[in-house]
Give the backbone structure.
Amino acid sequence: MLHFFYSLCFRIALPFVIFRLWWVGRKNPDGFVHWQERLGYVAPSPEPVIWVHAVSVGETIAAAPLVRALLRRNPDIPILMTAMTATGSARAKALFGDKVLYAFSPYDTPGAVRRFVDRVQPRALVIMETELWPNMIALSYRRNVPIFLINARLSERSAKKYKRVASSVKPLLQSIRWIAAQAAEDASRFLDIGAEPSSVSVTGSIKFDVEISDQTRVQACALREKLGADRPVWIAASTHEGEDREVLEAHRVILARHPSAQLVIVPRHPERFAAVAALVTSVGLTLERRSAQLRAPEDAPVPDCQVYLGDTMGELLMLYGVSDVAFVGGSLIERGGHNPLEPAAWGLPVLSGPHIFNFQTIYSQLTTGGGFCMTPSAQSLAERVSELLADRETAVRTGQNALAVVNANRGALERVVDGISERV
């Protein structure tokens, strides 16, 4: 009954959702131009595909190593990647070019999902992390499409919410052929809300299998030379509205101790690039934008600025590589934090605010390994960054500890690919 009302409410809300999509699309046309795909009207696939669903940028990046591995294992089977957001879709295209197919995910109404499935003929559905869309799962299950929930995580907060509607969640979970949980705590929570024990495994997080290509390392080295090889650089990555100002306040304090220090700030969402640029200048800090530097001649030096704004898509991993210390955003506000493993893979000391419930297990591992420090306020962030920039030996040791945690936990990707191959 709850599933019926869910679908009914989604149908009623759909015209308003489309209108909002158009409204937002006035500033970001890519988000609206493919609106038909969101209703299931996608180009028919000539043969069955492996459908990999990743909601937004973070899940798309996490899915990338898995998609590469699936392409290596099954070069003759097309892979279709879907995302809910324009930024997620753009990131997938930037990562894979013409190696995979792309579409926006259908809205989770019975009609949209049915049209989508009829056209793409999935031979398997791979869902990243914890996207339990009732109609997507139910209709795929009825079509005998094996469903895999990969890199699955479930916070205690989310588990409590699902338990309130356990009678509806349990059938969904039991429709999933395999849940590859990141950690034992995640697996336990999935079991607690109704998953079958035989369908749940602990594989670890495939995010530990982060790859930094030689090309990315070369780009990072070249940019660091332009920024100034001898000046201290720290990065605030994936920041959200409400914490940018705190990061900039922290940088003002850092500048009092390290006058040549530079902050690389990378907002999580591209629609906020202009607002963050305006905020930087409004607090009296000098600014250079990554996009402006890319438009300059290749040999043009980067102006001597206090803040370097990463206002491009797909370059965050490279920008970590120009830095000495990394702060991972979405954590000074109650957003739940973002992936700390990319800076850890560069061997950087990792800092974050207190709100990290989306990555609690990973942060616990980094804490135990001595590669992470929590900074609950702008003042504590400034103090810790200043200390690490002043004490190179401690910064290097902390960064190597973080890298050691990454290296010790690699291998989940192979386990996940093996698990999917055995169950398709």
In short: Residues 349 and 399 are 4 Å apart (CA to CA). The chain is about 50% helix and 15% strand. The mean pLDDT is 91.
